UniProtKB/TrEMBL annotation:
One of its GO terms (molecular function) is oxidoreductase activity. It holds the Pfam family Aldo_ket_red. The lineage of its organism: Bacteria, Bacillati, Bacillota, Bacilli, Bacillales. It comes from Mesobacillus foraminis. Residues 16-296 form the NADP-dependent oxidoreductase domain. Signal peptide: none annotated. The keyword Oxidoreductase applies. CDD domains: AKR_AKR11C1 (cd19086). InterPro entries: AKR_Detox_Biosynth, NAD(P)_OxRdtase_dom_sf, NADP_OxRdtase_dom. GO terms for cellular component: cytosol. Keywords: Oxidoreductase. Coiled coil: none annotated. This is Aryl-alcohol dehydrogenase-like predicted oxidoreductase.
């Protein structure tokens, strides 16, 4: 495994982390604590130290799985990133909650679910520019940093159209951003990455496998059940993406290299990207994802 400083923060993160949206039950599978323990234990064996979650991956469900795990392990071995701004409801619906008092309640609920006294990276989750541009909110968050509940602040951008939040990040003492970036969606290269590099912001690349399509295991015509968020995507759009993936696999992926490992390392070669945070449904995927570190650039400017 390789490690990089997450921008201007004090966090040294593994170049491959673990995204945990799937633990909330929206990706076609419900998890048990034993399965989560096995995934995280193996990830640690491969040198992974970064877990990304959110209060609305289930109603703190993902956080509770992680908290149960942490309660039986060394907390200091892990860098925990979570998010705020939403509340999970039945049928995978979410409501938005951005008032300072609501965010403070969310923070305390996340700390309880995670069974920890502090969060390493607390991220505004898919906020609008109006929700972001709120001095009272950031004043509240700064107080929590000084109180020791939060080590660093971040922003998980709603979409790749929200470059303004990246440009203003340092004004609110934000040290890292999270953005959708993969071989299919390269939009951040245009304006988000330059703004991040100018401010020395850490960059977490989410959806680095394009919702699993860059894993190489899906073909055009793939079907996803009602309990899988991908079922909400237009079928024609999915088939267009999978057709493009087939072309990439044939022309860009070296022979003998798993496509998922290649796709993650492709993200890591951009000098703005600190770490990728793919989801893992099983231990085999943990191994494939961790292999990406072997192909990551040795001369990355943030490498440690």
């Amino acid at each position: 495994m390789k490690y990089r400083r997450l921008g201007k923060t004090d966090l040294n993160v593994s170049v491959v982390g673990i995204g945990t949206w799937q633990y909330g039950g929206e990706w076609g599978k419900e998890f048990t604590q034993k399965e989560v323990d096995g995934i995280l234990d193996l990830a640690q064996e491969f040198g992974v130290n970064l877990i990304d979650t959110a209060e609305c991956y289930g109603d703190h469900l993902s956080e509770r799985f992680i908290g149960d795990y942490l309660s039986r392990r060394k907390r200091e071995d892990w860098i925990i990133a979570t998010k705020f701004g939403h509340h999970f409801h039945e049928n995978f619906e979410r409501s938005r909650h951005w008032r300072p008092d609501e965010v403070l309640n969310q923070l305390d609920a996340s700390l309880k679910a995670l069974q920890t006294d502090y969060i390493d990276l607390y991220q505004a989750h898919s906020c609008t520019d109006e929700e972001f541009n709120n001095d009272a909110l950031w004043t509240l968050l700064d107080k929590q940093v000084r109180a020791g509940k939060i080590r660093n602040l971040g922003v998980s951008l709603r979409t790749n159209d929200y470059s303004w939040q990246t440009e203003k990040a340092s004004d609110y003492k934000v040290g890292a951003i999270q953005v959708v970036y993969n071989r299919i969606d390269t939009a951040p290269e245009k304006s988000i990455f330059p703004a991040a590099q100018e401010q020395n912001l850490g960059v977490l690349a989410r959806v680095p496998l394009a919702s699993g399509f860059l894993s190489g295991k899906y073909k055009p015509g793939a079907f996803f059940g009602d309990n899988d968020v991908r079922s909400k995507t237009n079928e024609d759009q999915i088939n267009r993406v999978l057709t493009k993936v087939e072309a990439i696999a044939a022309s860009e992926v070296p022979e003998g290299v798993p496509m998922s490992s290649w796709a993650l390392s492709w993200c890591l070669k951009h000098p703005a990207v600190t770490s990728v945070i793919p989801g893992c449904k099983n231990t085999k995927q943990v191994e494939m994802n961790a292999m990406a570190a072997e192909f990551a650039s040795q001369d990355h400017p943030q490498s440690i």
